[in-house]
Amino acid sequence: MATKEEIINFLKTDFPQAKCIVEKVGEQSSIVKQQIGFEQMRPGGTVAGPVLMAVADYALYVAILGEIGIVSLTVTTNMTINFMRKPISTKAIIGECNLLKVGKTLVVGEVSLYSEGDPKPVAHVVGTYSIPPKKNQLC
Amino acid sequence: MATKEEIINFLKTDFPQAKCIVEKVGEQSSIVKQQIGFEQMRPGGTVAGPVLMAVADYALYVAILGEIGIVSLTVTTNMTINFMRKPISTKAIIGECNLLKVGKTLVVGEVSLYSEGDPKPVAHVVGTYSIPPKKNQLC
Amino acid sequence: MATKEEIINFLKTDFPQAKCIVEKVGEQSSIVKQQIGFEQMRPGGTVAGPVLMAVADYALYVAILGEIGIVSLTVTTNMTINFMRKPISTKAIIGECNLLKVGKTLVVGEVSLYSEGDPKPVAHVVGTYSIPPKKNQLC
Amino acid sequence: MATKEEIINFLKTDFPQAKCIVEKVGEQSSIVKQQIGFEQMRPGGTVAGPVLMAVADYALYVAILGEIGIVSLTVTTNMTINFMRKPISTKAIIGECNLLKVGKTLVVGEVSLYSEGDPKPVAHVVGTYSIPPKKNQLC
């Protein structure tokens, strides 16, 4: 298992492109946050779908690192997103992840996405990550 | 229905954040292309998953505009992506979309994503778009 | 909105093929149960995947009827299932549904599926139902 | 790899509950068929969604057996189905499967489902199967 600090340090080097902030790493769970600016918007004054997917993907990755420790070659194998409400483009997006299954090779988790301050989710994601066999792990 | 030029002009104004290029608009289909740079990469020298989703989302949007004409409030309702092979970060990503159903309110399509020049898909997407009722359409 | 009794009576006539029992109809939620016999099994002494999907579909339908009232032409538009643990073929399958969004035309919900008595879910489903326009509703 | 006859014989013993017929086993592909009777119907004179999922699941299983040989513990890890048109309850359901990726541990495939004789698909499925490590395989 990895602490919030270890995960933040790892991601700073390993995944510098990510714009998300790690807010919390919990028991098979995480909370992450992404600020929204022009680049994250799409027509209609709302947040682009792929940005929501990116936040969900990041939340899953953080929750998995928190659970299995720092394993850099962990990859998403699939993801399903349902868009439910129009996010507000002036609010940050919050992703709350809960892992549903932590297997030896596959991890399944779900992420609820919110416009900060609004209790109704804007989108819901279920995703699967594949964990590489021990011998292929770099960290 | 809208031509490739009408779609390109519309998207230039409507969705300036998109980094994709419209390559082809066909019969219930489209081909789009995105160059990959540092911002589009993720750990492991590969392309970030959300970038693949963004390309797929764009390909779906373009194919739908080609089929139903310029309708700006069309939104994604859900999307499922399966990641199948590691994209090459030095190649552009190509998205080839085929619409499976064009209904009055829902459109379903699939997108195969490729690293340019490689015939084996790196990912596969199925997505649904919701078309707003005529009275709510802006264009 | 419809009560548990109204839903049970409606489904008895409307959907006699279903083998599920309605256990509870709550606030945007439901619990249903299906006994497992030889017909519901698959190789490996476990429950067939399509049976789990059928239980999830039923749980969604019941939760929606509880929320919007008896509307017979409501149909599933898509469903994603993740199989997480091997169900025990000697236990009933329990489906617990929560609706995530109740819109005018689309309802999104999730269902956790359990082998009765085991707190860890065997599968997780997210599904979307389409509600017909008022003028097309039979009930 | 396994032939159509080997697969039919294996499934007769291994999965006697299945009501599907194997029509064709091709290069990373399969065609299967299921007759529809009262038990397979749902309200509205149509085919129940879980029956379509069962046909898709079977088509995937058959295509995988055709590709990797008889491996009995192969299991579905996830499946996404989009329902696109109302199937006709007096026609058989045909499932046409193509594998998109055959990896060492995961296989991804898609299935188009048809009412026999109608060229427009009634539903579309993407699913992932997990192949057990060689040492755990029974056959």
Oligomer: homotetramer
What does the largest sheet of chain A look like?
6 strands, antiparallel
* Strand arrangement, major sheet of chain A: 1-2-6-7-8-5
What's the Cα radius of gyration of chain A?
A: 15 Å
| CATH A-level architecture of chain A | Roll
Q: Would you tell me which CATH topology of chain A applies?
A: Thiol Ester Dehydrase, Chain A
Number of helices of chain A: 2
Account of the protein in words:
The structure is a homotetramer of 139-residue chains. With 139 residues, the first copy, chain A, is an alpha+beta fold. Chain A has one domain (4-136): Thiol Ester Dehydrase, Chain A (Roll), CATH 3.10.129.10. The first copy, chain A, has two helices and eight strands, in the order αββββαββββ. The first copy, chain A, has a six-stranded antiparallel sheet with strand order 1-2-6-7-8-5. A two-stranded antiparallel sheet of chain A has the order 3-4. In chain A, a hairpin with a 3-residue loop joins strand 6 and strand 7 (106-115). The B-D interface holds B 80, 82, 84-85, 100-101, 103, 108, 110, 120-121, 124, 126, 128 and D 80, 82, 84-85, 100-101, 103, 108, 110, 120-121, 124, 126, 128. Strand 5 of chain A pairs antiparallel with strand 5 of chain B, so a sheet runs across the interface.
List the helices and strands and how they pair.
4 copies of one chain form a homotetramer.
Chain A: H1 4-14, E1 21-26, E2 29-34, E3 41-42, E4 46-47, H2 49-68, E5 75-83, E6 93-102, E7 106-115, E8 123-130
Antiparallel strand pairs in A: 1-2, 2-6, 3-4, 5-8, 6-7, 7-8
